[in-house]
TrEMBL record:
SUPFAM superfamilies: AraD/HMP-PK domain-like. One of its GO terms (biological process) is monosaccharide metabolic process. Keywords: Amino-acid biosynthesis, Lyase, Metal-binding, Methionine biosynthesis, Zinc. One of its GO terms (cellular component) is cytoplasm. This is Methylthioribulose-1-phosphate dehydratase. The keyword Zinc applies.
Amino acid sequence: MTVFNPQDFARAAQALGDTGRILYQRGWSPATSSNYSVRLNDQCCALTSSGKHKGELTPADILVVDWQGQPLTNGKPSAETLLHTQLYQRDAGIGAVLHTHSPVAVVLSQIWPQEQLSISGWELQKAFAGETTHEATLNFPLFANDQDIARLAAQVEATMQQQGQGHAYLIRGHGVYTWGKDLTECFRHLEALENLLGYQLELLKLRPL
């Protein structure tokens, strides 16, 4: 039987609501798009419920799900729950996952021709945990959007097994997933990623593909 600490859940629910309001205000999570989660233990996570406006989240809009995506509290899990639990199951060091739909990420993912976006030479790369130099190359896989989330989650896992876990990935015409040891680190990764993707989009205006 999966159990969790109610106080941990309450703290996670409050933090996810606060984060949702920030992401909505920045235009990265319009309307009911996006989903966010925080690990509670080695069996389950707190997750935003499906169909909730991300600028108006309350603790009642957060539920607990196990690694199979089954709800353990009231609420309807996001259709994309398995993309969160895939990450938690593969790496016990992941404590939070953020999925957003910013205009920059959606547009760039739609027009980028390769199956991987490689970025190097930007000082901001060092915002990602473990990155110490702008001279490194960061690789972000791109996946075709798929309504079969179990199939997409399996594809993400297979790619990570072959190419490494990295820091984030994009879904074409959809958005990004990024993660971190906790919600603070995850938010930092997302903020860095949004700016790096913005740099890349601006470069495309100057140097079209």
